[in-house]
Amino acid sequence: MNNDALISFTQKIVREQSLSGEEGAVIKIIADEMRALGFDRVWIDKNGSAIGEINCERSGPTLLFDAHCDTVGIAPGSIWTREPFGAEIEGSHMFGRGAADMKGALAAMLHAAASVDRSRLAGKVIVSDSVMEEIFEGGALKTVMDETRPDFVVIGESTQLNLSRGGRGRAEIHLETIGKPAHSSSPQLGINAVHLMAKVIAEVEKIPLGDHAFLGPAILALTDIISEPYPGYSVIPSRCKATYDRRLLPGETPESVLNPILSIPALKEINFAAQIAESDHKAYTGEILHADKFFPAWELDENNGFVQNALKGLRASGLDPQLSAYRFCTNAAYSMGSANIPTIGFGPGAEGDAHVVDEKLSLDELEKTARGYLGIIESVLAG
Ligand SMILES: [Zn+2]
C-alpha cells in the first residue's frame, strides 16, 4: 500500500465539501479513484452511493466495507483556526471537515481493498461510499446491501483503532397535546395545550429506562417544544408538540418504546399522542429516502466467528485492538440492527473528534487503519 497516495487521496476528498444530499462531486472523485486503483466493477446506485467490487480468485463470502461520504456543515459563527476545506497537514495531523468523520476511513478502505492479493483469497470485497448518513443512518446502506448481499459488514466510524461490536440505537419521538383555543383574557374558556404538555413531560420523564452492561444506559432527552399558534398573540394555545431523542438498547422496538408512554395512568384524561417521527430526504440523484426515525441498537457476541477473525486480522497487522462499543448511532443500525448481518466497526479517531471545530485526523492512525482493513480482509477471506 502506498501511504503517500493514501494521504493525498484523503486530502482530495476532504477538499470537496459534501453535505448530506450534495455528495455528487465527491462521489465522482471516489468512483474515479476506484477505477484507477483497479477495482473489478464500479457503479453508482439510485441514491448516488459509490460501490466498488474486488473479486478474489476463489469463491467465498462477501465482505462489505462501508463509509459515509457526507459530512455535517460548518456551524455559523464557529471559528476555525484552519481552513475547513483546506486539508492542511500540520505536524502529525490533517485538518478539515470530514477528516475524522469519516473521509480518512473511506480513503483507507479504498486503498486497503485495492491492495489485496486476489490469488490468495476466497470471496469478494465490496467498498460502499454511502450518502446521507448524517441525517438518516442506514437509509442509503440498505440500498447498497440489497444490491450486494454481504455476509459480513465493517463500518469505519471512529473506534480509536479498537474493534466495536455494538452500538446504541436512536429514535425520535413526537408528542402532541390537543387543547381548546380561547382569548387569553378568558383563559378559563379554553384548554391550554402547553399546560397539558407540561403534565405529559413530567410523567414521561418518570418512566424508568433500561441499562446495558456493555452499551450503557438508555437515554431520553427533550430536544424541542413548540405551541400553536406560534407566536401566540392573545390566544390560548390549542396544540403543543415536543420532540424527544431516545437512545436505544438491544431488543427495544417502536412498540416497547411507545407503549410505556401511551399507557401512563395519570395521563388517561389528557388528549395526547406519541409516535415515532417520520421524514423524507432527497438524495442528490433526486431519489427520495423515507425514514421512520427508529434506528435499532445492535450487538454482536464477542465469541462470534466474524469478531474473532477480524481481531485475528488486526493483530496480524501489528495492531492491539480492544473490544468496544459505539455510543452514537451509525449505519450499523441498519446492517446489524435491522438486517441482522454480522457487523463490526473499526476506524481512526475518537467519537469526540466528529462534528467539531478544527476537526482533525491523525496520519499515523490513517495508515494503521488501512493496514487494519487489509488485515481484516486477509483473515476473513482466507478461505
Ligand atoms: Zn460518521
Concise account of the structure shown:
With 383 residues, the protein is of the alpha+beta class. The chain has helices at residues 3-14, 24-36, 99-114, 139-148, 193-204, 254-262, 305-316, 332-338, 363-380, and strands at residues 41-44, 50-55, 58-68, 89-90, 93-95, 122-130, 152-155, 163-167, 169-178, 211-212, 216-217, 219-228, 239-248, 272-276, 278-282, 288-292, 294-295, 298-299, 323-326, 343-345, 360-362.
Overview of this protein structure:
The protein has helices at 3-14, 24-36, 99-114, 139-148, 193-204, 254-262, 305-316, 332-338, 363-380, and strands at 41-44, 50-55, 58-68, 89-90, 93-95, 122-130, 152-155, 163-167, 169-178, 211-212, 216-217, 219-228, 239-248, 272-276, 278-282, 288-292, 294-295, 298-299, 323-326, 343-345, 360-362. It has 383 residues and is of the alpha+beta class. Strands 1-2-6-3-7-20 form a 6-stranded mixed β-sheet, sandwiched between helices. Strands 9, 12, 13, 14 and 17 form a 5-stranded antiparallel β-sheet that branches. Strand 10 and strand 11 (216-217) form a beta hairpin. Helix 1 packs across helix 3 (99-114) and helix 7 packs across helix 9 (363-380). It is elongated, with a radius of gyration of 23 Å. It starts with a helix and ends with a helix. Residues 68, 101-102, 133, 157, 354 line the site of zinc ion.
